[in-house]
Description:
This protein is of the alpha/beta class. The protein folds into two domains: about 1-120 and about 210-230, Rossmann fold, CATH 3.40.50; about 120-210 and about 245-330, no CATH class. Helices cover about 40% and strands about 10% of the residues. The chain has 15 helices and five strands. Helix 3 links the parallel strand 2 and strand 3 (about 80-85). The chain is elongated.
Amino acid sequence: MFGHLLWLLLHVSMSVRGEAERVPCARILFIHIPKTGGESVKATLRKSFPSFNFLDHRSYDWKSLYKREVRKGKKAPRNLIIEHHVQSEAFGNIWKDIPKLQNIWEEKKCVHFSFVVIRESEELALSAYSYCSRPRFVRNKQAMPKLWHNVVHCQDRNVMITYLTTRNWCGKNGVRHPLGDSGNMSNAHFENDTMHVEDACSSNKDIRIWFDALRIYDMTELDVLAKEINSAFVGLGRIRQFKRTNSSPIPSAKSLHKLSMSRLPFVSCKYSESNRKRLLKFAARGSNRKIDEEIKSQAIRHISCDQHLYKSLRNRGNMGAPKDWDNGFEKMI
């Protein structure tokens, strides 16, 4: 019995190995949007596929990579993981290259898998603000708590769209959307609150096309991503699970959470001990913990086009619509 089981395991192992050896080449392309679990995805891919060459976004130039991949006869790694961080080249500048690369990989009989991870817009904006509040050139970086009063004053509106098109992530530079001349209102102030989101976010239809060649996963669905990558690359590696990487600590986060929708007496774009203590002193006045309707309204407008884009992407192909997106900010209150 034991001998038969051992033979069966050996047979399966040889079959899987044989299948892997018959694959001429393999490509995994990961489009990395910040604060969507990208560091965890990147670290897990590197560990789970040790035989693959790994290109971190800091280690290559997109244009050079593209030319090397499409050039016939040019020697390239057999198996390759490409992490493209939008920080290195705006997604709006490279999305047209992706289907061309996929066609080349098909011609070369490569197994390929191209994907992006996205995140619910409220959580993304809050996380982006907190991340950007960390002081530079400090070893043990600490971040500000996720308070909307600070977010709307310290961050560009629709941070995901702004980043995809301009690479601007931290700060409030008043950058207009590159598609602004064609009717985009992604960073508009919505002075007329009756403006319909469909009209205000008209350029989202153009941006949505950028994702057509990608598999789209929500940050909460990394287990699904792992299963589908494992299925595509049998014998070449295996992801057991994506492990979360540590984020910067947020001192007094629990004590200050009740101020999430409060109007604050000052704006804090960067972390400092003095700012934290001032917030704690303000929070100690229980009457100041109430929801400020104007801050809530500003927060909703702040992410309106991001949320519209997020919903449309979640309705795409390999993703199901989330059950709670229509609850808006109610889940935060």
